[in-house]
Input
Amino acid sequence: MNEFKDKNGLTEEQFLASYHPGDYPKPSVAVDMAIFSAADKKEDNYRKLPEKELKLLMIKRGGHPCIGTWALPGGFVEPDETTEQSALRELHEETGVDNIYLEQLYTFSDPHRDPRTWVMSCSYIALINSENLNVEAGDDAKDAQWFTVKLDTVSQHTSEYDGGFEKNTEYSLKLLSGDTVLSAVISHSFIRSSNGSQNKYEIIKNDGIAFDHAKIITYAVLRLRGKVQYTDIALNLMPEYFTLTQLQQVYEIILGKPLIKAPFRRKYCMLAEPTDKQTADAGHRPSQLFRKKWMSD
Amino acid sequence: MNEFKDKNGLTEEQFLASYHPGDYPKPSVAVDMAIFSAADKKEDNYRKLPEKELKLLMIKRGGHPCIGTWALPGGFVEPDETTEQSALRELHEETGVDNIYLEQLYTFSDPHRDPRTWVMSCSYIALINSENLNVEAGDDAKDAQWFTVKLDTVSQHTSEYDGGFEKNTEYSLKLLSGDTVLSAVISHSFIRSSNGSQNKYEIIKNDGIAFDHAKIITYAVLRLRGKVQYTDIALNLMPEYFTLTQLQQVYEIILGKPLIKAPFRRKYCMLAEPTDKQTADAGHRPSQLFRKKWMSD
DNA sequence: CAAATAGTGTCTTTGAGACATTATGCG
DNA sequence: CGCATAATGTCTCAAAGACACTATTTG
Output
C-alpha cells in the first residue's frame, strides 16, 4: 500500500474506504471437477489378473436445465474462497474424501454454455486413490455414479496451406456404467495462420452429457495423457501398495494403448519403492509390492 | 433440449422462460495478459550480432489501487464474450496488433488479490512477432512500456519426510525498462503428502508490480520455459525471416541459459524452412534466412 | 506339466550433449 | 590476414522400442 494520491487527491486507503463496486454485469463462476480413479474390472478366471478401467464420477441432474443428463460434480464459488478451496469443499461434500490430487484444468467461458445465464466454469482434474473408491457418493448416494471412460481418436486431418495449416481431430467419448451409455463426439481444431493461432473444441454430437461437460471431460483426459508421461501424476491413482504391472495398467488405460513391459519398468521404476511384501494366492508367480516414491522434479 | 419435466412439472423451455438469476454474490472476472516479445539489444560493435532480450508489456497504473505501480494489460470480461475474445479485444486496444498467439494460462482466484472487491483473473499468455514491436502502445502511448524480463532461480530446497516431500523454489523476477527497475521474489512450494498434493505460489517481496501480477508473470515465464521445449510456440516470437542463430537466441532468453549450437540445430531445424535469402553486410560470413515451418503435432 | 504372470537380458536405433573442424564475408 | 559468425562432422553416452528368455507359483 503506498501513499501516492490519485487525481481526486485521495490516498489508496481513502480510495478503498470510499470504493463501492459498480453495477456492471458479472458472471457466475462455477467449479466443475473431473474426478478420476482407476478400478479393477471384474475377472472370472481367477488365474488371470483383473484389467483396470479409468473411471469418472458423474452426477445425474435432477432439475432443469439438462434434467436427466449426467454432469460433472461441481458448484458455485462462494465469496472468501479460491476456486481451489471451492473444489476441495465440493469434493469433500460429494465423495467424503480428502486425500486427493487436484489440478486446475481450464476456464470455460462461452457465455452461452449454460442456458440459464452467464456462467463460467473453472474446471479441475481430481485423481483419487482407488482404495477410496468404495466411498460411494456423498449426501444421498442417489445419482452419483462412476463411469468407465473411453476416449478414442476417430479421425485426424491436417490441411496445409500457404503460411499455415489446420489440424482437425475428432474424438469419440464414451462413458459406461452398467446399462447407461453416454457418448459424445468432440472435434478439436488447431488453426495456425499468419494471423495467429487458434485452438477450438466443439461438441459435434452429444448423448446424455450435460452442458459442455463432454468438452471438459475430453480436455481432461487429454491433459492426463500428456502429463502422465513426464510427471508422477499417475501415482495419485494408485493404492498404498501396488505391483509394477498394476502401475503399467494404469498408464495403459490413461494412454489408451498397450505398453511394453521392459522399457516401461526401466522408465517408471523411479516412481516406485520396493517393499518386502508380495502378492499371494494368485495362481501364478507372486509379484513384489511397491509403494509410491514421488519424484522431486 | 429435452422434454423431461422437473418436480414442478415444467419442461426445460418453460423453466428457462421463468428463470431469473438469484441474488447471490458474484465475482468480477478480469482478463490479464502477459504479452511477450523478443527484441534485439543494442550492440555497438557492428561486427557482433545483437543479443536478444525477452520483453513484456506493462502498463503504469494511473489510479488506485496500486497507483504508480506497473500492471499487466487487461480488463474486465464483458457479457457475450468469452475470456479469449476479451483478451483479443483488449490486445487490439492496447497494441493495435491482431496477429498474435494466445494461450490461457491460469485463473487466479484469491478473493483478496484485488483490494477493491472480489476479482478473479483469467490470465493469458500472448506472444508477438518482434517485427510488430514498433507498434508502441495503443490509445495514448503514455504509460505502456516494454520491460526486459529476467527470471532466476535463487534457491531450491527439497525436504523429504515419511510418505511425502516438500519442494520449495524461490525465484527472483526482475523487470527492466530504461531506469525503471521492478522486482519481486516469488516462492513456489510443492507439497506432496498422503493427504494429497498442493502447489502454492507466494509473493515474498514486491517492488513496483501491481496486485498479484508478479505471480502471474512468474507463472507465465515458467509455462513458456516448459512449452518451448516440446512445441513450436517460440516461432510466434520470430519475424517472417530469421536465421537459426536468432531462433537459438530466442530459446536462450526464454530458458535463461546458453545452448550448444549443433544439437540445437539438429533438434529444432524442423521448425524452420530454408529460403534462398541470406543476411548481408554483417562483417562476417552471411547466414541463410529461414521462415517458419509450423509443426503439425 | 500347463497356465499365467514376474522379472531380466540384450540388441538396435535414436537423439542429446560436448567439442572440434571447416567455410565465408568484411575491412 | 584476422575477426566474427556460419555450418557441419563426429564421438560418447543415455534412453526408448522391440523382443526373447528365464523364474516362480498354483492346480
In short: The longest helix of chain B spans residues 213-228. Chain B has a mean pLDDT of 90. Chain B is about 20% helix and 40% strand.
